[in-house]
């Protein structure tokens, strides 16, 4: 059933005017906000930590905006197959600067991009491909083969290799082609073996995979986020490079994760409604 609706959505979005697509995104968001109690509770729990002084009315406004951001992301994603490369590039305010920004931070050394479920990480993958980078991501396999094929067609178009979440890190540790870039979403600890770090004043577990890969493959970590702007376009934001001075792997990996968490917090704090984790994020702490 999910596969059917995905196919329908891809085809409908291709022919609808932009204003109607946006209206549909808002309706989807309002529907989820009103009827998905579990996700709504998760978003409220997160906002209470990120905005502890906010009133219930303000939290409700922020929560609805969070669902709205997710709805817009979904519509953007469905638009991609019918959108030209030039149109996608025009959606990113500073697309032309991507090479300069990354070269400045990497110092022309191999690097690993680290991001989170913030802004539009899927569109960021397309952007990297259009920028000439061949990237590697670790991803969940879709339950429906139809949906999986839709994802794979987009990955082929944008030069992205997706590794199964169960053994993707192992694959990248064994073999990462020279000049290609791992881009890893690093804010959900699926393996339950992450580092417990401070995030908005509370402990939470962040995964170690990107840090471990960077240490063993001698990569510079670069936090990167594609952030939605008020006009609907996106701004690519890169953080400071992460390359700890510790000599032993254990200390290096922890320092890497702590640094990423601190930079991620600074980004999220600018607009918590683009933090798209629809569960109690801090419940992963021991």
TrEMBL record:
Pfam families assigned: Lip_A_acyltrans
GO cellular component annotations of the record: plasma membrane
Alphabetized UniProt keyword annotations: Acyltransferase, Cell inner membrane, Cell membrane, Membrane, Transferase
Top-rank taxon: Bacteria
Natural source organism: Candidatus Cryosericum odellii
Compartments, as annotated in UniProt: Cell inner membrane
Protein name, entry field: Lipid A biosynthesis acyltransferase
GO molecular function terms noted in the UniProt entry: acyltransferase activity
Entries under CDD domains matching the protein: LPLAT_LABLAT-like
GO annotation terms (biological process): glycolipid biosynthetic process
């Amino acid at each position: 059933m999910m596969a059917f609706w995905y196919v329908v959505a891809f085809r409908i979005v291709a022919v609808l005017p932009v204003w109607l697509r946006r209206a549909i995104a808002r309706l989807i968001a309002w529907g989820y906000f009103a009827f998905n109690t579990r996700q709504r509770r998760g978003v409220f729990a997160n906002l209470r930590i990120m905005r502890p002084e906010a009133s219930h009315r303000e939290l409700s406004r922020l929560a609805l905006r969070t669902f709205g951001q997710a709805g817009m992301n979904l519509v953007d994603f469905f638009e991609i197959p019918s959108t030209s490369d030039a149109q996608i590039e025009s959606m990113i305010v500073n697309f032309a600067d991507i090479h300069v920004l990354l070269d400045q931070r990497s110092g022309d050394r191999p690097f690993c991009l680290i991001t989170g479920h913030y802004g539009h990480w899927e569109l960021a993958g397309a952007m990297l491909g259009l920028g000439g980078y061949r990237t590697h991501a670790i991803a969940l396999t879709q339950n429906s083969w139809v949906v999986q094929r839709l994802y794979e067609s987009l990955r082929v178009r944008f030069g992205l290799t997706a590794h199964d979440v169960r053994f993707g890190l192992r694959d990248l540790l064994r073999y990462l082609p020279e000049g290609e870039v791992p881009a890893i979403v690093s804010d959900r600890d699926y393996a339950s073996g992450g580092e417990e770090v401070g995030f908005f004043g509370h402990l939470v577990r962040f995964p170690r995979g990107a840090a471990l890969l960077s240490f063993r493959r001698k990569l510079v970590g670069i936090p990167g986020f594609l952030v939605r702007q008020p006009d609907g376009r996106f701004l690519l934001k890169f953080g400071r490079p992460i390359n700890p001075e510790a000599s032993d792997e254990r200390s290096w990996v922890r320092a890497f994760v702590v640094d990423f968490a601190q930079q991620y917090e600074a980004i999220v704090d600018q607009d918590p409604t683009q933090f798209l984790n629809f569960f109690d994020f801090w419940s992963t702490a021991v």
